[in-house]
Every structure is written in C-alpha cells, then in structure tokens.
Design goal:
metal ion binding (chains A, B), globular, EC 4.1.3.4 (chains A, B), TIM Barrel, alpha/beta, hydroxymethylglutaryl-CoA lyase (chains A, B), HMGL (chains A, B), homodimer, about 300 residues
Chain lengths: ~300, ~300
Amino acid sequence: MMLPAQVRIVEMGPRDGLQNEAVAVPVAVKLDLIDALAEAGLRSIEVGSFVSPRWVPQMAGTAEVLAGLRRRPGVAYSVLVPNLTGLEAAMAAGAREVAVFGAASESFSRANINCSVAESLERFAPVVARALAAGLRVRGYVSCVLGCPYEGEVAPEAVRRVAVALAGMGCHEVSLGDTIGTGTPLKARRMVEAVARDVPVERLALHFHDTYGQALANILACLELGVAVVDSAVAGLGGCPYAKGAAGNVATEDVVYMLDGMGVATGVDLRLLADAGNLITRELGRGPASRVARALLAGGQLPGKA
Amino acid sequence: MMLPAQVRIVEMGPRDGLQNEAVAVPVAVKLDLIDALAEAGLRSIEVGSFVSPRWVPQMAGTAEVLAGLRRRPGVAYSVLVPNLTGLEAAMAAGAREVAVFGAASESFSRANINCSVAESLERFAPVVARALAAGLRVRGYVSCVLGCPYEGEVAPEAVRRVAVALAGMGCHEVSLGDTIGTGTPLKARRMVEAVARDVPVERLALHFHDTYGQALANILACLELGVAVVDSAVAGLGGCPYAKGAAGNVATEDVVYMLDGMGVATGVDLRLLADAGNLITRELGRGPASRVARALLAGGQLPGKA
C-alpha cells in the first residue's frame, strides 16, 4: 500500500461543522475550541465564514473570531468568503487566508448560490485576484464532487473543470468535497484521478462527509494516489442539510486514528483532539459523532502507533 | 484497485449482534428478523449460539430459533457452538452449519473461556470432527486478530497459528475477527497477508467491528488482497463489551453500500436490508448504528450502482 509519509489535516469544525449545527455557538466558545484544536497540533483551521448571518446565523461573529484569535506560530486560520464584500470584511478583520467555492453540479450551484457554475467562477475570479494582490493565500473548494442532492451522480469531468478553474485563478490548493457523502472508494479514486490529470495531487485536498459511513474508506483509496491533505471536523461536527439527522464531516479523530495506525504522521495528539471535541459537544448538548471519541468516552483504549 | 467481482456477506446480526445488546429479543422477533434478512438477499446468516443462557441470556431460545426457521433454499443458517454439548444440542435442533472459535490472544482466551489458546483448540478439535462426521459444515472464528482488550497489539503470527489450526481441523472458512475494532487498514492487510501464507484467501473471511470507525477502510484494504467474504450485522447491531456504549459489528448496510458503489455484487437489496434493520431496532427501542440506515431514515438518497 503506497501511502504518503505525512498528511496535513485541515480542521473544518469551527466552520463547516458549526455552520451545520442547530445551535449557534458564542464567539468565546468558538475561540476556546479553535485554541484547543491548535493545542492538539492542528496547523490549518478554518475558523468561520463571511456569508450573511441572515442566511447562516451560526457564522455570525466571524470578524470577532478573527480579531480574538490567540494566534500561534505556524498555524493558518482561514475563513470562507462568498464574494468581494465578504473578502473585504475578512481582510479588515485580519484574515491572512481565505477560501472560495464552486460546485461541480449546475443544480446545486443554482440552489446554493443562485447562479450557474460558470457564473460562480466568473464572480470568484476577482475575489481571488484581490486576495492574492493583498498577499493572502486562497484555497478553493469544489462541492458535490461525488454526488448532488438534485442531480445524483456527478461526472469526474465536471469536477475537473471547476478544480482547474480554481487552480488557474491562483488557489494554492483545491479541496474536493463530497458534500452529501454518497461517494464510495472506487468512484472517489476515479474522480481524483480525473482531476489530477490537470491539477497536481500536491495541490489537492480530500473533503469527504461521512453521511453514508464511507469517508474513511474513500480517504484511504485516495491517499494511495498521493493526496496528502484531508479536511475533517473534530467530533464529526455538522450534519447534512440534505438528510437532517445524518452524519456530517468525517470526524478528525477517526481520520487521525486511521493515519496514526498506519504510521502516517499528522502532528495531531489524539487525546488532546478528543478533549477539544468534548469541549464543543458539551456546548452543543450532545455526544460526539466520532466513533473514536465515543469509544474513548466509553473507556476504550488507544493502541500503540505503527 | 483490484477487487473481487462478488462478495459473500455473512450476516451476524441475530448472533454476534443480538448477543451484545442489553435487551433480550423474543424468539418470534428473531425469526422475523432472520426471514427479513433472507428476503433482503442474504445467503449466510448466523442465527444464534448454544452457549449457556446463564452466561449469555440474549442467546436463550436458539434451539427454538432453529426449529422455527422458515428455511429458504440456498440460505445457510449457522449457529455458534462452544463445545460438544452445544454441538449435540445444535444438531438435535436441526443445525446444518456450526461455528467454533479461538482467540489470537492468550489473555483474551483465559478471560473469555478460561483456558489457553492451545487448550481451546484441543477442545474444539473433537467438536469439529464430530460435526464433520455428521455432515455439517463448520466455520472457524479467530478473535482479537487486530488487538486485545488485555494485551493491546496482537502479532499477525499469533493469528496465523490459530487460523491454520482451525483450517487444519476442517473448518471450511476461517473468519478473522477484530473483536474490539482497534485495527487500521495497513495492520489489517499485514495480518491477512500473514494468515494467507498458509490458509488460502478463498477460505478467509473478514469480521471487523466498527468501534473506532475503521471497519470499512479495513475491509477495503483486505478486499484488495482477494478476500471475498465479509461478516457484518444489520443496523450495526451489538456493541463492544470492552467499551460500553461504543459501536459493535460493522453495519451490513454500510458494507453493502460500499460494495454496491464499487460494482461488487452481493445479491443484497439495500432497501429491504434497511427494512430488516428497522424491524429489529424498533424492537430494541433505538435507532440503527448504520450510517447508511440513518441517512435513509433522514430522507437521504441511494445513488445508482456502478
């Protein structure tokens, strides 16, 4: 099995996780969570989003989150920006890394941001250009890479086109999102192979949701292609807006556990990570969706590393 | 990715699942569950265990289960037998396929059945011989193949020895059990590779628990070695006696979903399977542990097959 020697985890809990939780979390708790994640060893943390709080009330206060960060050396704190207004607000609040997004599915793009995929990319081009000109790093997301809640199957070619566009604008990394978690390993691998024909695997990240329990298997299948960046959310925060009550982001604990067990370095301490997850799930009034976190809470053990 | 064209699922719900549930399920409900599983297309179902009901009250009534089976052509209904007494009772009740078990860990064997691994194999040899002489098929289980609740890591060599012994006695198949679910894909693969040096992969089955969320990834890693039999439990029935509240057997729905998505034939209808899971989780008064089942209950969709 060919695996990367190390994997960088991009922690999605404070953004993609919390934006899909029913409870809106106060800024002070978000700051505690972010610091606990950094303490656990995470070096890339998405901390919020400058979407309208009318649409996503859970992301209100992201400017205060950025302003209040106890920044640690070597940790990148990114925010999602939907447009130039959001970018300007993010920069005013001190953002040094931002992320933009496009969908691989026309219907999803229409439903989510009310424009075609091509239009969304045209809108993002000046956002990326402005951010790069200001010296920021920009990450690109592609959603619905393995399925769309409206269209079903999504062609790898559609994913490749959007990924190429985002990389071409200057996104340093393109994160491939299985937004509804319907993907399976062989399709995940074929999708990454299609994208990697034009965007080097070194610039790709896997962003898989665990709605159907497939995320770890999908990640494993794609690590073997050389992808070495994985997005995940502590405690499996978030959910699926298209299947209320179902699981959301793959849990960071579960990803780190798998990588630890295979001797793939992440720099993350699993115990401290589980502590960060307990911090936020207590606030949300529920247990973690992470199976590793649940096993640890139940008295389960952590095996030695490979 | 090299994958088998088809995989046989051995359904563990009525035995390994229910024996680890807090609620003891009446025989009539077990019979309904077993029939619903057969209706969904499962062709190998473990329906109970002839252990003492003093030790495992959930398995009381297995003789009545065997007697009451609405047997369908082509479906194998097996029972676990711990000793000659259990075998005789199983045969008296009409069992045509039985299963015996050994542990790859000395401490686990001592704690579980109060004898050494070698002694347990000596005790099982006449059980297997008697069953074979009576024309029954015998399956062998090895537990703790990727970790022991008392010893931690387990050497692949220890697994190989027990598997070889069970195969040598005449077990037609040896099922490799990650009893506490601590395994990860690379270790799972190395373990199977060690065993397959002496027992052909065609005679091996994967029996992985999902306590740490790793089961599907571990299965995927081992399917690539050519193993084509997977044990699982509908709805993820069961739990981990060594981490109360944690997940148990990998859910049959999640396994079938992954295999469907990769174009690997199982003969199982996922909708009917989820119905079987709903039947038993209603009886248990809780939701399914299967992520696929939960997504479907939440209104999630099933993608087309590969």
